Amino acid sequence: MKRKLTDKTILITGASSGLGFELAKKCAELGASIYLVGRNEQRLARIVEECGALGAKEVKAYSFDLTALESIPGLITQIEEESGGIDALINNAGFGLFERLDQTPEKTVQDMFSVNVLALIALTKAVIPLMQKRGHGHIINIASQAGKLATPKSSIYSATKHAVLGFSNSLRMELADEGIAVTAINPGPIDTAFFELADNSGSYTKSVKRWMLSPEKVAAKTVAILFTTKREVNLPGWMNLASKLHSLAPGLVERAGKKGFNQK
């Protein structure tokens, strides 16, 4: 029997497509109240309709550009007031671009850190006092295996995900005695529109297509650990093993994996 979330309110960022959309659907199927943040207003409207049909107790969407960091506290205040309380925040919004650092525009660097790191921190900082008042909450940060094992042409993206993991690990200890759990989700490549931007040549996508995770599987694994104290979810297992080996023998792994790492 599936666990129900009818008494829970869940805020999901990056909900316009891909993994965010699948997370919203999974939460809807369990009867949660869902508050969605994304940039594409038309897509959000369709997702609201679909989640309502799937059984969401309540669903509402906000078209919002997360690079507007100064407006994030106001957004959280609005959602808190309209929802009656945020039980879980899933920081899913993010993007990547696979190219050499010397070919990456400065604005791309700034925008990637703004969305992947600074917005995530701002959203988290804004919800923590609200969760502290109620004595419970769950913050789930969608990081990446790239945050554990960096590869060529992903220096900025990997740096942002390293930051998310470091942030999550520290925050988890800060909040451990306050009833607020912090979980990092570290997936490998997911078969979503993420790669339409990240890999505009299509070469990397083609080379790893058979290894890509389905967004439905990642969403199911993520929703399954909601309101638990799970520290991390690492997908797929073999890729996580490679990152563990890298932590023990980085030079060896980088030499052995050079050909594969340079497929981008």
SSE map:
Blueprint: E1 9-13, H1 18-29, E2 33-38, H2 41-54, E3 58-63, H3 72-83, E4 88-91, H4 106-134, E5 137-142, H5 155-174, E6 180-187, H6 194-198, H7 203-208, H8 215-224, E7 232-235, H9 237-248, H10 250-256, H11 258-261
Parallel strand pairs: 1-2, 1-4, 2-3, 4-5, 5-6, 6-7
What does this structure look like?
The protein is α/β, with parallel strands linked by helices and 264 residues long. The chain has one domain (9-261): NAD(P)-binding Rossmann-like Domain (Rossmann fold, 3-Layer(aba) Sandwich). Helix content is 50%, strand content 15%. The chain has 11 helices and 7 strands. The protein has helices at 18-29, 41-54, 72-83, 106-134, 155-174, 194-198, 203-208, 215-224, 237-248, 250-256, 258-261, and strands at residues 9-13, 33-38, 58-63, 88-91, 137-142, 180-187, 232-235. The protein has a 7-stranded parallel beta sheet with strand order 3-2-1-4-5-6-7, with helices on both faces. Helix 1 (18-29) links the parallel strand 1 and strand 2. Helix 1 runs parallel beside helix 2 (41-54), helix 4 packs parallel to helix 5 and helix 9 packs across helix 10 (250-256). The longest helix is centred in the middle third of the chain and has 29 residues, at 106-134. The mean pLDDT is 89.
